[in-house]
């Protein structure tokens, strides 16, 4: 069972159950959930709450772990909030193998650093890419079109990208 | 030449200096991304001992199109066209995941006729996706003629897509709030004929492959994925059912009225490429069964929710009602806004669990849309399946994993 003090908040969003855990103790919470029967990590992702007026957010980046109990057919969403530059959280790739690529993807697109990950490199974007495309301050259309006239001037990415 | 300066054109070989079991040296071979057997643009860095695969490292991202970023810049109803395009072999199934997610946040339920039409479109798509898989996998293993048979039936399905939505591939037929439009009588005639004839065509594919000695020797015992491993790596779809686990989201977590249809979950205990082939063939038969049932008991009624804040009013109302004009104008300039919150909806696509996770901040555009794609997760199991097999078997294993690279890279 996951210890009570690990859950800082919980609720139901559109029928999906969720809990919030403190980011430094995420690994502990995920290990407890795995013991509890949630053995499958369905997906892991991040949401950037920059300038999100819908409610008061504890931090800019919200990490989400959707875990599933395949025997009892229940899902649970685990939230953890991180801030800082770069935002940092513990890796869970050894507890849940599918997390390996998901964490690389989240690092690639949001710049969240998963400490303890064996190979935290870019996975979808080219290795020499500058910036984290899914952050809200990264503009749509902010990349050069290769082999076009503007490409020459774009070869070095703009500092704000 | 080392692997770093391989531009990905053709095959590059590097000597690693490591000793193999047969006295030779381990070779690193670059496989893809423009190799016909990689189902698109998958690149693999393979370490070989003789012909035996010792390590496989998939390199992905060649088809990354930034669909999730794009959707944050589009209004809720515009995002549907993006969902078509990541897993380009099963557009309506991806539409459905997105539509169900938006509907759950909005708290609306679509009418029964829309649900049944959605099921029809999803099962047609499952068939066409499996037909592409069967045809291309056949070609990869030397069975050239299967492709011709498969694409003959796939074209019938494309014709039906065209009849119902106007598009052959990216239909955008299933939308939040219902479907694009009601199906035409001609569509139902085509569908009835298809349901009547398809079982015989599936027999034809089986005649070509199931007892074919070459096909059997290329697939039986190849690419073993033990049930406990399949669970650990998070495999879904025919990958997990080919390992003997009856896990089908249409059965275990029914959506869009799937609980009302009578069908079996296809499983096979073989755990190898042949088992996954048999599972897909069985799934095609079940899909035809579901189509027949849906056609028989298709309910009458509207195909969209009756909510003027979400869907435009009918054309004739615009001439008489000022309110209808206002709703129409608001919908096509600002769009509708979705209450704040987040939701995850998973549906069973031809490849496994294709889910859609959306976050709304209460505005008329999504804050975040994340696609959980089955191909992305299933591809991680590739190394475990390919270990100690011959390099030629790697082609069979990639084939039966049935990854769509658009879905992997999104």
Write up what this structure looks like:
Chain A is α/β, with parallel strands linked by helices. Chain A has a single domain (4-154), classed as NADH:ubiquinone oxidoreductase Nqo5 subunit (Beta Polymerase, domain 2). Helices cover 16% and strands 27% of the residues of chain A. In chain B, strand 1 and strand 2 (25-31) form a beta hairpin. Chain B is built from 16 helices and nine strands. Chain B has two domains: 3-59, no CATH class; 67-302 and 338-372, Cytochrome-c3 Hydrogenase, chain B, CATH 1.10.645. In chain B, 49% of the residues are buried. The radius of gyration of chain B is 23 Å and the shape is globular. With 410 residues, chain B is of the alpha+beta class. In chain B, the strands form three sheets. Chain B has a four-stranded antiparallel sheet. A three-stranded antiparallel sheet of chain B has the order 7-8-9. The A-B interface holds A 13-16, 39-43, 45, 47-49, 52-55, 64, 66, 70, 73, 75, 77, 96-98, 100-101, 109, 122-126, 133-134, 136, 138, 140 and B 60-61, 64, 66, 68-70, 72-73, 104-105, 107, 231-234, 247, 252-253, 340-344, 346, 353, 355, 357, 359-362, 367-368, 370, 372, 376-377, 380, 409-410.
Characteristic terms for this protein:
heterodimer; A: 161 residues; alpha/beta; Beta Polymerase, domain 2; 5-stranded mixed sheet; two-stranded parallel sheet; 3 helices; 7 strands; 27% strand; globular; B: 410 residues; alpha+beta; Cytochrome-c3 Hydrogenase, chain B; 2 domains; 4-stranded antiparallel sheet; 3-stranded antiparallel sheet; 9 strands
Quick overview:
The complex is a heterodimer of chains A (161) and B (410). By secondary structure, chain A is of the alpha/beta class.
CATH fold type of the largest domain in chain B: Cytochrome-c3 Hydrogenase, chain B
Note poorly predicted spans of chain B.
1-11
For the termini of chain A, the CA-CA separation is: 44 Å
What fraction, in percent, of the residue positions of chain A are helical? Answer: 10-25%
The CATH architecture term of the largest domain in chain B is Orthogonal Bundle
Give the CATH class of chain A.
Answer: Alpha Beta
CATH superfamily descriptor of the largest domain in chain B: Cytochrome-c3 Hydrogenase, chain B
CATH superfamily of chain A, please? NADH:ubiquinone oxidoreductase Nqo5 subunit
Largest protein-protein interface: A-B, 39 and 41 residues
Q: H/E element string of chain B? A: EEEEHHHHHEEHHHHHHHEEEHHHH
Largest sheet strand order of chain B: 1-2-3-4
